[in-house]
């Protein structure tokens, strides 16, 4: 299982996995409500999934270079594939207002899509290797991306310009996320380090050591008091964001 996404009402969760099957689960019963598989599904490998506004649609991304929108009730695809070139799509993220989606690809770019039209609004370039992770800030005016080129970039959504570039100095960035107040950025790298950055200045705030392999996921608690990290070293760790010590 590569990723999961909760429905807006918190009653269902959708999962995508290496068998190229997308499953919709009922949280109360733990049972599969429906699943998407077979020749009409992406191939190869569904990489990410998100719920779209209204709770009746999901979007999937794939290494086949496309985004697809699905009706949850019927299980049928809505409209045509969203495409902009053939580059493999690694991840997608929905803006808080539900009007835009950003996707990251192996072609070093970040694409901004209009949810209503399914068209690319703009493509941001600047990374020199595959973009691995992306996150919106709280007000939707900024997007931060991490890349195998070892940098994090903050993009101004309206202008499309890079307003901050951070050289992490510790190898490829595998995961990136804003803090809830968007004052800090956390980056995880394939060496197992987590670094915390000031989102306005790019100054390093902390360097968290503990994982021994690639950091594959990061999450802040809503109050911002803890950062949670998962890794290929088979551990999940929690960190105090005041002292930056491992809890």
From TrEMBL:
InterPro entries cross-referenced by the UniProt entry: Quinoprotein_ADH-like_sf, WD40/YVTN_repeat-like_dom_sf, WD40_PAC1, WD40_repeat_CS, WD40_rpt
Annotated WD repeat ranges: 1-35, 39-80, 82-123, 124-165, 166-207, 208-247
Cross-referenced CDD domains: WD40 (cd00200)
Keyword Repeat applies: yes
Keyword tags: Repeat, WD repeat
PROSITE patterns, alphabetized: WD_REPEATS_1, WD_REPEATS_2, WD_REPEATS_REGION
SMART domains for this protein: WD40
Name of the protein this chain belongs to: WD40 repeat-like protein
Organism annotation: Rhizopogon vinicolor AM-OR11-026
């Amino acid at each position: 299982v590569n990723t999961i996404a909760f429905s807006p009402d918190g009653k269902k969760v959708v999962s995508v996995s290496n068998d190229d099957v997308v499953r919709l689960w009922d949280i109360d019963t733990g049972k599969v409500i429906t699943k998407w598989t077979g020749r009409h599904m992406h191939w190869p490998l569904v990489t990410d999934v998100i719920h779209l506004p209204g709770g009746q649609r999901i979007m999937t991304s794939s290494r086949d270079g496309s985004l697809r929108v699905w009706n949850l009730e019927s299980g049928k695809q809505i409209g045509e594939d969203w495409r902009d070139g053939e580059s493999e799509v690694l991840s997608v993220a929905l803006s808080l207002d539900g009007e835009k989606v950003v996707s990251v690809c192996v072609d070093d770019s970040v694409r901004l899509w209009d949810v209503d039209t399914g068209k690319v609004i703009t493509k941001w370039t600047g990374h020199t290797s595959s973009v691995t992770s992306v996150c919106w800030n709280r007000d939707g005016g900024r997007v931060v991306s991490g890349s195998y080129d070892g940098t994090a970039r903050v993009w101004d959504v309206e202008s499309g310009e890079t307003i901050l570039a951070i050289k992490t100095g510790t190898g490829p960035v595998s995961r990136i996320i804003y803090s809830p107040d968007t004052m800090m950025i956390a980056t995880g790298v394939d060496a197992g380090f987590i670094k915390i950055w000031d989102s306005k200045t790019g100054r390093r705030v902390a360097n968290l050591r503990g994982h021994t392999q690639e950091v594959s996921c990061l999450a802040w608690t809503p109050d911002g008091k803890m950062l949670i990290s998962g890794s290929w070293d088979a551990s999940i760790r929690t960190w105090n964001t005041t002292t930056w010590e491992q809890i």
